[in-house]
Amino acid sequence: MGDIMIKQQQTMVLSPYMDIYDLVIPKDNILRKIKELIDFSFIYDELLNKYCLDNGRNAINPIRMFKYLLLKSIFDLSDVDVVERSKYDMSFKYFLDMAPEDVVIEPSSLTKFRKLRLKDVKLLDILINKTVEIAIEKGIIKGKSIIVDATHTKARYNQKSPKEILMDRSKKLRKAVYEIDETMKEKFPSKIITNALEDEIEYCQKLIDTIEKEDAICQYPKVKEKLNLLKETLTDDIEHLQISKDEDAKIGHKTSDSSFFGYKTHIAMSEERIITAATITTGEKTDGKQLETLIEKSIKAGIEVETVIGDAAYSEKRNIEYANKHGIKLVAKLNPSVTQGFRNKEDEFEFNKDAGMYVCKAGHIAIRKARQGKKGVAVNQTDTYYFDIEKCKCCPYKEGCYKEGAKSKSYSVSIKSVEHTGQAEFQESDYFREKSKERYKIEAKNSELKHRHGYDVASSSGLIGMEMQGAMAIFAVNLKRILKLIS
Asked: Residue 411: its pLDDT value, please?
């Protein structure tokens, strides 16, 4: 009985004002288009067991809660601002299946929904598979190729010191205020000159208090959003920033001399630019190891995979063998540093294609490399990678790896390109060259995720939170792409 009541909440909207939506929301509004495109009842079916159906007051409709999170991702808004906008934006209310006069939720209920209802749901796969299903039904996906790549997302915490984060957010708030009224400079508290976090917190609180006294200025959305973000940082983040690092995030390397602290999202995408599979890992994981999973997830979603297009990170020996075994063409250039034949401790040292260096089990990257052997005779050549022994001396994995007192720690790789003759020949074919030209498409998709959907920085801490953020962002970009191709 309880499950019927929750489902009815989705369909039974009784209000004399419902016709207003037809008058004020254009036919080409993106939320109207998404609502017409997809039946969100699949979310209810996935979350049914997460709801207590016969105990106490009715739970807030799970489909509506999910739609709030989708709106956050589409428009890159905070919890507070997405709820605030749903009070007055008719397109939001229409999308949320609310009557125009309905009362909105409390922003805190979104946090509870994420933590309690979505925690153990494989949302990433569920949402991608749903959009792929729609794309296939609409005849959008016609090709049999997928393009693979990885994109970086910085951890929310410990990218900057707590003081730096507060300084950055208070600066953006002041800038928004100055655009409206420059004379506010005279009312603002004096900037602090100490390095103490406590002083910065006190300054930010005074700044907030000063601005909140100015009712006219607070009404501007660009000020309100910056103000809410600074308040949220003061109340929710400061304690977390002071006492912990994001335990799941790890250090990854973009180049040999630059790194990031966070996560990687490994993506497979059709040539029509619909994301067909994704996995989310900590930042130090290498791209090539995710290829089998991305192919298998894409096939499970309904894609027929004949060709895989990627960069040199995906051309390691194991991937070539997997592709050959399953009759898949692997359009990924060979790299002698990545695709050598047998090498010792293959699971302990992994190649990072962005940096062009090997990374050890502890996540430390080699600081230099040298090639040894006779030039032009590939079989007899080796690349030797040298590590920083100061890190080795205090490494938790040094037993069996670093010898006490040694003046250097290196890892050598034999270059045996002869073992990849078949792939080398395929690399010279016209088919390989033509398909390689498709790879740029996934770079643009990564950029869209980061710059339009807030995917450059994690919105919460932990791998579970990152998976949820990835699921919503990918769902949003896939829906937008489907709508564009239909129109």
From this structure: 87
